[in-house]
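Researcher: Good morning. I'm working through a list of sequences from a screen, and I'd like to move beyond sequence-only analysis. For each chain I'm collecting a predicted structure so we can compare shapes side by side. This is the next one on the list. No need for commentary yet; just the structure.
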Amino acid sequence: MLRLFKNHKPLFAFTMFLGLIGSALSIAAAFILERILNSVVDGNWEVFTTMIWVVVGYVLITFVVVAASATAEKKLIVSAIQDLRANIHKGIMSRDVEQYRKTNSADYLSALTNDIKIIEENILIPLLNTIQYAIVFVLAAVALFVYSPIIGGIMLVFLVLMYLIPASLGAPIGKRQEAYSAGLSLFTLKLKDQFMGYEVIRSFRLSDQVKQTFFAQNKTLAESKYGVDKLLALSEGIGQVIGAGSQLATMLIAGYLVLNGQMTAGALLAILQLSGAFVAPVGVIMQSIPMIQGAKPVMDRLNELSSSIPSEFNGTIEPQFENKISFDGVSFGYHDDHLVLDRLSVGFERGKKYVIAGASGCGKSTIIRLLGAEYSNYSGTICVDGDELHNLDIDKLLTKIATIHQGIYMFDESIKSNIDLHRNYSEAEWNRALKLSGVDRFLDQTEDGINSLVGEGGANLSGGQRQRIAVARALIERKPILILDEGTSAVDVQTAYDIENALLDIEDLTIITITHNFRPELLRRYDAILFMEQGRVVEAGSYDKLIDSGGHFVKFQQIKADVAEN
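Model: Good morning. Structure tokens for this chain:
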């Protein structure tokens, strides 16, 4: 657990040093009390007067040390949490698409919020308390043995009891803490679904049902948390009872020694003070150990999220794309029992424009996902200028591909930030992107032009405006490959035609379009139409060629026309 502080060793050492000084001061209080009481019993005004000044100095020094120690500890905890959160975020964001999608994003959110809080409250704070109170315990134990070996021995017996009984609760607390963490993840997931589905809930009058579901989940989560806290309270109670018993036993023995003249009244008071300094730390430590043990499964989960998962795409060859992208005998399925692509072979030459058409589920979008290295477990080969995808530097490959999806995601920032993604572009590049995408046509309708906020998920914009921003985002980098995955489906027919027509005018831009819009005047502008059925390209050629052949593509068009008429 100490590795949580590895990036802050000087601050950790300083905090421990202040803790040592504070511990020494707490032990010194016993000796000061002894001297004060003995001076009172003996009627020694000189010693008593001296002790007044000692107490004043002691209070001032203790205040400075305690304040500095508390400040350093808070800073250390905040810094450790900051590092842990950063490592988790880095681990999540370093995953490739295939690995990222294996975990629900709500689990990621829960890890960075709920689980982080568990680590702070159940590991970091208890761990620092354990270390610092252990120092107090050691110093108090040494002092007690100096005053009376008998009393020191008795305190050690109680120490063993204080350890064995609460520590036995560590395993069950761990199981309940793990269940609570899982419950928090599920709770976050359900809340995310409800908030994102607010419009559906409202439209279909599901508010009462959602409230009932939330009530049940909230109750289950509270019961899970209570299950953890109940065991922690039991551990704490046992520790306090044993600690109180040890202090009473110490007091009785010390009183006996005073009555027999073997110990002064001042020594009795000092022993009482030291027994508190001995028992209190042990109580804190015994409460902290089950908490730390209980939170270990949560820490293991966060460590797993923090670890970078090696991608299957670990090549180093820099892709060039001077000639062709080729799929050769590629088969792939999202599930083992069903192939989406079945021995697909197709090529995309640089600078040419392609349409991929076919019924839903035939594998159109899957081609795009594989080209973007989202999944690695395909058979066959996908090559860029003869270099297989697994051998390429994928980050550099992605700098050559711009994709406009049907579902456009807008960051809750300005229009400008959603286009440039906080990168710098020249005025000429901006003008080109805004004009080709048509963003310039609606900026004067917004509150603050290019700097207008789009709202959560682009809520302040229409679907068509969001689509145009996505096109501008794709064009501003001048990537050589542009993919339109139903990329103009959210705009009206004329606007879609204008955008697509403008894109087809761009020379040396390879375009791969997935569409259900079969307007002949546009399709004739493409170099080839690839028509797919059951994971394969069954027809390929220009629009006029496919029409003349009267094959699969023509029949598919006729079916769509019949459906549209009906």
